[in-house]
Amino acid sequence: MPIGIFMFLAALAIIAGFGVIMQRNPVHCVLALALVLMDLGVLFMGLDAVTLGFLQIIVYVGAIMVLFLFVIWLLNVQADPGLGRHLALKLFGSIGAAALAAEFAAIIVQAPKLSDLRPLPPDFGTVAALARSLFSDYLVAFEVTSILLLAAIVGAIALARKTSPALALVTPAPARDASALAPTGDAAAQRKSA
C-alpha cells in the first residue's frame, strides 16, 4: 500500500474516532464508529490481510453496528442536553483513559525486537486456517458470544416495550353505539331556537 493512501486512511480513522466521542447524537456516534471500523478493514486489506479486512467489514460494520443502530432506534435514546453535567463521570473517564494510555506504553516498551520474531506459518491468516481455529479451538467462545448477542436483542426489545405486560392482558371497553352519541330531538330543537 502506498504511504500516501495509508496516511489518508489513518487520518480518516482518527477523525472518525474523534467523531465517535464528540458527537452528541447517539446515532451519529454509531455511524462514526462504523466509519472507523470500515476504514480499519480497508487498512487491513491494504496490508495484505485481506481475510481479516473482509471479516472486519462484514462482522463489525455489517452486523454489530447495524445491531447497535437498531437498539438505539428501538430504545429511542436522545442526545444529552447538558454540557457541564456529570463532572465525576468525566473525571473517572479521564483517569481510565490515562490508565489505558499507561498500559499501552508499557506494552510498547516490553514488545520484543523485530529480530527476535519468528516467521509465521504459510497458511496463517487464510480462510481455512481461520475456520479451523474458530470452529475447533474457539467454538465455545463463539457460541457463547452468539447467545450473548441474542440475549442483548431480547433485553432491548423488552426494555423498549411501551405497555406493561399486565396492561396488555386487559381488554378495552366496548365502543359505544354511534346513535347514543347523536343529540336527541329535544336537544337539537333547543340548539335551533338559540
How would you describe this protein?
- With 194 residues, the chain is mainly alpha-helical.
- 71% of the residues lie in helices and 0% in strands.
- The chain is built from nine helices and no strands.
- The chain has helices spanning 3-22, 26-46, 50-75, 87-109, 127-134, 139-160, 165-168, 178-181, 185-193.
User: How many strands?
Assistant: 0
CATH superfamily of the domain at 1-80: NADH-ubiquinone/plastoquinone oxidoreductase chain 6, subunit NuoJ
Find the CATH topology of the domain at 1-80. Answer: Four Helix Bundle (Hemerythrin (Met), subunit A)
**Mean pLDDT rating:** 79
Q: What structural category do the secondary elements indicate?
A: mainly alpha
Helix amount: over 70%
Order of helices and strands: HHHHHHHHH
Radius of gyration: 29 Å
Architecture of the domain at 1-80, according to CATH?
Up-down Bundle
Count of runs of 4 or more consecutive helical residues = 9
Approximately how much beta-strand content do the residues carry?
under 5%
Which ranges are low-confidence, i.e. pLDDT below 50, for 5 or more consecutive residues?
none
| Main sheet makeup | none
Measured between the Cα atoms of the first and last residue, the distance is 89 Å
Shape: extended
Q: What is the CATH C level class of the domain at 1-80, in words?
A: Mainly Alpha
